[in-house]
Amino acid sequence: MNIFDNAANAFISAYRKSHKLGGVDIQIDYLSSPELTDKVLILCDPMLATGTSMVLTYKKLLERGTPRHTHIISVIASTEGLSYARKFLPENVTLWLGAVDEELTAQAYIVPGLGDAGDLAYGNKI
Question: Which domain holds residue 75?
């Protein structure tokens, strides 16, 4: 917001629940966003693991209008997450990634990844 001082901002609350037998469910819990029609949208997430939460978030944001262009920024992604995002996001989306790691575990963790950086961004696990 210091750089884009005239930009509006949004808040999206999403979480994932891992299952003991494998698989992950993603839930979008809350969305607060201004109108997005014909705007440039920037979505930031520390890690793009499966790509599912980013695709669900993008689709949820479309309820607020269709952006002219979207930039998705992640520090790290998995090969699987990158493939999923490319498959389910439209052509007017640009992905900016710091690195791509090859492995994604059965619990949907990127290896070597960033550890709990994404999970702990807002405090200790409860």
Answer: 11-111
| 47 CB-contact burial (10 Å; exposed 0-12 / middle 13-18 / buried 19+) | buried
Q: What is the pLDDT of residues 43-98, one digit of tens each?
A: 998 889 889 889 999 999 999 999 999 999 999 999 999 999 999 999 999 999 99
Residue with the bigger pLDDT between 71 and 111: it is: 71
If one counts the domains in the chain, the total is: 1
